[in-house]
Amino acid sequence: TQLADDIEAVTSPEPGLLIRCFAAGLSDDQLLIQRGFLDLLVTHLPLDSGVLHSNVPRPDHVRLVTAAVSVVARREMSLNRRLWTWFLGPEKPSAEKNESNAPTSVVNGHDQSQGHRVKYFRQYGLDILVQSIIAMFENDAVPTEKARPFRISLALMDQWEIGGYVVPQVFLPALKSVFRYQDLAPTPEAFDEVLRSANVFFDGVESGLIWDEVSNKLLQSTKMQITDSGAFQNSLGTAFFVLKNFNLQEEEMLTRHMPLLILSLVLKSKSLLMKYASHHGLDHINQILDLTADFSQE
Closest Cα partner for 78 from 47, 41, 32, 23? Predict the structure, then answer.
C-alpha cells in the first residue's frame, strides 16, 4: 500500500535516523520548532503507531519519549497541551463522551478509572515513559542535568491521568538518585540545586506513597542476610537521608505514619541487635529512631 511505502521510505535502512531527527527537533531552543515537532508526533507518529512498536528499537523509542517529555520543563502551555494529546491519544467523539462517566483519580498507582484516554496511555505510553524517566534519574554522566527529571516528574503531576500512574513508579528511583548524588556532585552548590528540586517534587507527592516507600525500605533491610551488610546500610542510609533532608511536618505524617514507623522499628529492634550489632547500620537505626521521635514530639 501507499502508507506502507511511505513508512518504508522514512524508516529504511535505519529507523533510528527518523527518531533522532524528532529528538533533535523536540530539543530545539526555539519554541515554534518544538511545537511543530509535537504536532508531527500527534498527527503522524502517535504512540500506538506500528512504526514505534514494530520498526523502532526500544532504545530509540526511549530516546523519543525522553525528548518529548522534556518539553514540560519549559512550562509552556501550548507545548504541554500537545504533549498531553500525544500521551493520552485522541479524545472520544462527543456522542461517546456523553455516555461515559468522568474518570476518577488514581491513588498509589491503583486504577480507579476506565476512561478511554487513560486506557490509551496505560497501554501505549506508561511503560516507555516510566522507563525514560528512570533512565534520566539513573544517568550520572551529566551532573548538570540531575535536577531535570525531578522538574519533569513534578510537571507530570499537573495531568493526573499521566502523573497519577507515573509518579508511584519513579518515586523510589528519584530518592535513590538524589541520595547517590550527594557523593557524586562536583560541588556542594550543585548538590543543593538538585536537592531543592527534589524537595519541591517530594512536597507534591502523596504522604501515603512517601511512607510506603520509606517504611518498605527500612523493613526490607531487616530481612537481609548479614553478608548483605552493604545493601543493608544503603537501604537504611537512603531512609535516613529522606528523614533528614525532606519536609515531613504534615499532620498526617506526624500523627499516623511516623508512629507506625517507630513501632515497626521497635518491634524489629531485638532481631536487628542480634543480626547487625557489629555493623554500622545499627547506628543508622538509632539515629532514625531519635530523629523520628523528635518529629513526633513537635
Answer: 32
Report the distance separating Cα 178 and Cα 221, nearest Å.
20
Q: What is the pLDDT of residue 109?
A: 41
Contacts of range 27-35, beta carbons closer than 8 Å, 24 or more positions apart = 27/67, 27/70, 31/74, 31/76, 31/78, 31/79, 34/71, 34/74, 34/79, 35/78, 35/79, 35/82
pLDDT under 50: residue ranges of the chain: 1-3, 95, 100-114, 226-227
Q: Convert the pLDDT of each residue in 225-237 to its tens digit.
A: 544 556 666 776 7
Our separate counts of H helices and E strands in the chain read: 17, 0
Threshold 0.85, pTM exceeds: no
Task: Evaluate whether 7 touches 54 at the Cβ level (below 8 Å).
Answer: no
Q: Which residues contact 114 (CB under 8 A, 6 or more apart)?
A: 100, 103
Phi-psi region of 107 (alpha: psi -120 to 50; beta: other; left: phi over 0): beta
Q: How far apart are CA 79 and CA 69, in angstroms?
A: 10
What does the alpha-carbon distance between residue 110 and residue 121 come to, in Å, rounded to a whole number? 14
Q: What is the pLDDT of residues 160-190, one digit of tens each?
A: 999 999 999 999 899 889 998 988 888 889 8
Q: What is the pLDDT of residue 249?
A: 75
Amino acid at 144: T
3-state SS, residue 281? helix
Q: What crossing angle do the helices spanning 160-184 and 229-245 adopt, rounded to 10°?
A: 110
The answer to whether 177 touches 133, Cβ cutoff 8 Å, is no
